[in-house]
Amino acid sequence: MAKTSVYKFGGASVKDGSAVRNLAEILRNRLRKNMVIVVSAMGKTTNALESILAKKLSGEDFSLNCTILKEFHQDICQELFPAGHPVFAHLDNLFLQLNNDLEKKLSRDNYDEFYDRIVSYGEVISSRIVAEYLCYQELIILWQDAREVIHTDSDFRFAKIDWEKTRKSCQSSWKPLLANFPILTQGFIGSDPKGRTTTLGREGSDFTAAILATSLDAASVTIWKDVPGVLNADPKLFPNTRKFDELGYREAAEMTYFGASVIHPKTIKPLANAGIPLFVKSFLDPEAPGTKIHEHASVHHVPTIVLKKDQILVSFKVTDFTFIEEKHIHSVYEKLQSLKLRVNMLQLSAISISIVIDTQLFKLDQLISKLRDEFEIRYNEGLELLTILHQQEEEIPSLLEGYEVLLEQASRNTFQVVRRKN
């Protein structure tokens, strides 16, 4: 039996009617048995659902937001399907379920669980529309719910995979189906032991593709993006970018660790462990070669720039005139772990610990309240973290022009700076 291949299409590749048509054209000559298609929410749907949650949490009326979101999806369907097509009834039903879920009680205490239940609708709605359209185009495909095979713990918003259980489910439930049909499913979502919806972290659909690929012993994963492959910088932010024809797993993992947005950070490890190659290709130019990430890629030293926005610099200063010791670092990291906060940069001085973290709702307040008895705490919000891998000294000043530097550190292969606009 031929090995499975996994395709993943992100939000930009299903953002409107013409994008969905383009996806169908990409699949027209490629779709076959033993293929899994993973799709993200359409366009900026996840952001829209987060805005609805924010309004609900603050007690504001969010009904207009829900109406706008439903109309966005209805407009796409009207562009793709004839009047009276069953997809419109599916859509009405899913938005009815969403509105029922939004009527339930939300507080800071159950926010993460509530978030997962609500935000998952983006992927479910998107996958249903895409599957219906492919079938309407006579491309036969099975729609399957990813939550039935991707099993996680109950760590809502950052769920950890139960790899053994997930593999068993994929092999017993999906493998027999794939012998006869391709499967279309959702990225980003799973379910906990009680059957509650969980999510794998923002932009986690790439990770879904890697989970399914390793659990199904796939031959390859292809991520379809709006860029020609993996570039050495974001072309929207930096001029004269260069595409990598190939990358080793280690180099790709390093780039994603520092925040390169082209691939989700958790994607590389399971693929590397299983020796499954990852292709990053452009849905705007599907015949172009893109980038291949695999074990035997040649090493390069092209400077690579990664920019993370919405960063917070937090400094913890000891108050009793002692120096920073291991117990202080352990205390800070323990609280960070309990809040599921990841450190993007760390710097120690004799009397303080400085960390850079992503902006997340409530999390800074909670971190400060947990540590205010041990440290004097200061912070700056709205910052950018610039990381340059394989840096060339002469190029750094131009990247800092017009910015105030709040923190800086360098090693042989990495330069990092926390900056804000002057």
UniProtKB/TrEMBL annotation:
Domain Aspartate/glutamate/uridylate kinase: 4-282
GO MF assignments: aspartate kinase activity; ATP binding
Main enzyme class: transferase
Keywords: Amino-acid biosynthesis, ATP-binding, Kinase, Nucleotide-binding, Transferase
Gene Ontology BP terms: homoserine biosynthetic process; lysine biosynthetic process via diaminopimelate; threonine biosynthetic process
Annotated EC: 2.7.2.4
Catalysed reactions, semicolon-separated: L-aspartate + ATP = 4-phospho-L-aspartate + ADP
Keyword Transferase: yes
The keyword Kinase appears for this protein: yes
Xref: SUPFAM superfamilies: Carbamate kinase-like (SSF53633)
Protein name per UniProt: Aspartokinase
Organism, as annotated: Algoriphagus lacus
Taxonomic lineage: Bacteria, Pseudomonadati, Bacteroidota, Cytophagia, Cytophagales
